[in-house]
Backbone:
């Protein structure tokens, strides 16, 4: 099993940079990358059947599948991705509307 390492920390640092660029907003307000791709993306937020899918939920789902690979893989891309997804998940859980779908 591989513990957190420098590649995970690079992913976490990239996530912090992305958070400051993209998600510099309060809950319920549009992102700075505000775009639409009906019916899946509305004002920069993901929707499935008109249900808002929070970014923390997407990150958590991906981590459930990717973390087991980190135990055996030495791929820097995977390790960076896991660090990035983990921080994005934590940031999304800090919003007050985190469980409002």
Residues:
């Amino acid at each position: 099993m591989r513990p957190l390492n420098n590649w995970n920390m690079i992913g976490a640092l990239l996530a912090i940079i992305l958070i400051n660029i993209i998600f510099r907003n309060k809950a319920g307000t549009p992102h700075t990358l505000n775009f639409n791709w009906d019916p899946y993306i509305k004002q920069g937020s993901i929707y499935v059947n008109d249900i808002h899918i929070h970014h923390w939920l997407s990150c958590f789902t991906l981590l459930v599948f990717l973390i087991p690979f980190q135990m055996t893989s030495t791929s820097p891309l995977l390790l960076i991705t896991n660090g990035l997804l983990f921080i994005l998940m934590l940031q999304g859980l800090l919003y007050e509307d985190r469980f409002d779908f």
User: Anything to note?
Assistant: The beta strands are 41-42, 45-48, 51-53. Residues 6-22+34-93 form one domain.
